[in-house]
Specification:
heterodimer; A: mainly alpha; 2 strands; flat; B: 373 residues; alpha+beta; Rossmann fold; OB fold (Dihydrolipoamide Acetyltransferase, E2P); five-stranded antiparallel β-sheet; 8 helices; 33% strand
């Protein structure tokens, strides 16, 4: 009797287990195929030697599996430490990413604050205006800045016209242009999380702070800023992480003086055709990025815990 | 002679703590407060009662300093406070949502106002501990607001607003978020704390029972005006208008022309078989249409016609059984329904009346109040 009752139940359990396994396995398979496997390939290339061949490195599978693994070494990583170009580029990228994150925060916070305080019926429109630039190609938008910032560009002509300057300003091909480009491109990533945090803020908290003796300014520092901290941290990481590896903006707007690791990486790959060194640069860049990414994840986690 | 009754409003020598003088507040075309004049005295527990949108919250925000009057003046201890920002007023507020700072612990929430005043550390610590003790929160000082219950949050909000020992404490629907049982307990707690601290409380509520329980005086508001200000007993027993009578508790209204029927006595023809008589201190003209307001518990219900002035026959239409009380809805021959309430001193199986029974209801001439509006 028990066997008769048990069999369909067992089958049901088995199907349920399978279903759960598939549900969990699918996203992991996705991550494995699209992130881990490419990373392993890049890491393998980083351990190889440059060669005049197609692909431009050796050893490859053609040399046999055991030979391929035996000939790998850390030569390229050692090379990165010997040539000061690389660590200077890393440091310079970190500095530029950090300064532009701070600048983006300084410009983004007031915009997010104004949006959160705007009348309810305006907010969707304002949000749309923030997102709208994404509908145009990123490349075209950065190109447009060349037209604005160049010596004969719109900005110089405008400043000349209103009489602020008599000599055209050199902005294009300097670090300033890179900062302008990064702040312009990434400011929506700063505004959106801060706006989300500020919009949830209960207005009566500010009134309560004022009622207990705070001036407007003090209430802002003691209540608004701490309660939007989650949004600020999220926004800073969302700007810092892509800005660190940024390639398009420094190569289009920056001059030869602006050293950024993204640009070095590009030149190593396409101008030098030294895939192994380029791969080593990429691996180190990834390792540098892992720290802020983990911190970002932890911030998100804490945020969720605090709400739950 | 020691006067033990707390009634500073009857003493012309006592200066009020707060006085509103012809205060009007407009938001665009909307008049939230309409030419309001009112005195509130020290150590009072004053309740502002009214339906939503009657202006009670606006009045509270005027007192806190979040709004400024469009015209008129507001005095606190004799000084005009119009234009003084909320952080410079000796007035604190307990918010309806409690508005506890979620990133600060209970202890830090209570200390918040004291820190802004730059209170010395020892004094501050002592004061916060005192507040925690007063509100029975000693064990919860280190917790964050989201780690405590609704009732505890309510007490934190109270402790925080009392910490600076304000001259006036404003409470905006302070018990609105609590369930009924907890609300009733907390009402008595609030009264105890008010007595212990001697602070003047102004409470905003739409719950008439709450206002009656806690307040020394109640102001019934409607459409930006105060309809009546009086002690809970007077508001209940001697309302000045049908609006107040109807807003506070249950009431039966009989309407019709009056005729004088002796000293301070009138006979009112409400359209029944015979007119009813009622006493009134107030004089009415012959034939004036007036309203007689009688509370259900002041109406008796009988099987046989009793002796007395006001007896009307009717049919039991409905019985609302509330456990301790029963309310009978009795339909009169003219169609009007009168509510009569009796205490259930007997078990329900021995109830004297049931649906469709013909009964006599009666009340004394002094049971009701005659009102002209």
């Amino acid at each position: 009797m028990f066997g008769l009752v048990g069999a369909p139940q067992l089958a049901f359990c088995w199907i349920n287990d399978l279903r759960r396994f598939v549900l969990i396995a699918l996203p992991y398979f996705w991550l494995l195929a699209l992130f881990l496997v490419p990373f392993v390939i890049v890491f393998k290339i980083a351990l190889s030697d440059a060669a005049l061949a197609i692909p431009p490195y050796m050893p490859t599978m053609k040399d046999g599996l055991s030979a391929m693994f035996l000939q790998l070494d850390f030569e390229n990583f050692v090379f990165l430490t010997e040539d000061d170009l690389y660590w200077k580029a890393y440091l310079s990228s970190l500095r530029i990413a950090f300064i532009s994150t701070v600048l983006t925060l300084l410009f983004g916070y007031p915009i997010a604050y104004a949006m959160a305080r705007a009348p309810h019926e305006w907010r969707a429109t304002l949000m749309m205006l923030i997102i709208l630039p994404f509908w145009t190609s990123f490349l075209i938008r950065v190109y447009a800045w060349i037209g604005i910032l160049s010596t004969e560009g719109l900005l110089n002509r405008f400043l000349f016209w209103i009489g602020v300057i008599s000599e055209p300003l050199t902005i294009l091909n300097t670090s300033t242009a890179v900062y302008i480009g990064i702040v312009y491109t990434y400011i929506p990533f700063m505004i959106l999380p801060i706006y989300a945090a500020l919009e949830r803020l209960d207005a009566s908290l500010i009134e309560a702070a004022e009622d207990l003796g705070c001036s407007r300014m003090k209430a802002f520092w003691l209540i608004t800023i701490p309660l939007s901290k989650g949004g600020i941290v999220a926004g800073c990481f969302l700007v810092f992480i892509p800005a660190l590896g940024e390639f398009v903006i420094p190569s289009l707007l920056g001059g030869s003086g602006t050293l950024m690791i993204g640009k070095v990486l590009f030149e190593e790959f396409f101008s030098n055709r030294d895939w192994p060194v380029a791969s080593a640069v990429a691996v180190i860049l990834l390792l540098i990025l892992i720290v802020p990414i983990i911190l970002f994840q932890r911030n998100e986690q804490r945020q969720q815990d605090a709400e739950g | 002679m020691v006067d033990t009754v707390f009634a500073p409003w009857d003493d012309p020598n006592v200066a009020p703590l707060i006085s509103f003088k012809n205060v009007t507040k407009r938001f665009g075309d909307f008049v939230a407060i309409d030419d309001l004049t009112l005195d509130i005295f020290e150590r009072e527990f004053f309740a502002l009662l009214g339906p939503s949108g009657c202006g009670k919250t606006t009045m509270m925000r005027l007192l806190a300093g979040f709004e400024n009057p469009t015209s008129g003046s507001m005095l606190l201890s004799g000084h005009d406070i119009a234009g003084i920002p909320p952080n410079k007023r000796a007035v604190n507020m307990m918010f309806q949502s409690y508005a506890l700072f979620p990133h600060l612990s209970v202890w830090e929430n209570i200390a918040f106002g004291l820190r802004r005043d730059g209170v010395v550390k020892d004094v501050l610590n002592a004061r916060v501990e005192e507040m925690l003790k007063l509100t029975r929160l000693e064990k919860f000082g280190r917790r964050k607001p989201h780690q405590i219950s609704g009732g505890q949050r309510q007490r934190v909000a109270l402790a925080r607003s009392l910490a600076k020992a304000p001259k006036l404490l404003l409470l905006d629907e302070p018990l609105g978020a609590l369930d009924k049982k907890l609300r009733q307990d907390t009402q008595f707690e609030l009264m105890d704390i008010q007595e212990q601290t001697g602070t003047t409380f102004v409470i905003v509520t739409h719950d008439q029972e709450e206002a009656m329980t806690v307040a020394s005086r109640v102001a019934v508001m409607d459409e930006g005006r105060i309809i009546q200000v009086a002690t809970p007993e007077k508001i209940y027993e001697a309302p000045n208008s049908v609006y107040v009578a109807d807003f506070i508790g249950d009431v039966n209204i009989l309407t019709g022309p009056v005729k004088a029927a002796g000293v301070d006595t009138y006979s009112l023809d409400f359209g029944g078989t015979e007119p009813v008589t009622a006493n009134s201190d107030r004089a009415f003209a012959e034939g004036e249409t007036v309203h007689l307001a009688i509370r259900p518990e002041k109406i008796g219900i009988h099987a046989e016609r009793p002796d007395g002035p006001n007896t009307v026959q009717g049919k039991v239409l409905d019985i609302a059984y509330l456990g301790n009380l029963s309310t009978y809805h009795v339909q009169l021959p003219n169609g009007q329904i009168i509510k009569a309430q009796t205490t259930n001193t007997r078990r329900i199986s021995r109830r004297a009346f049931t649906w469709e029974d013909l009964v006599w209801i009666s009340w004394s001439a002094t049971a009701g109040v005659l009102l002209d509006q």
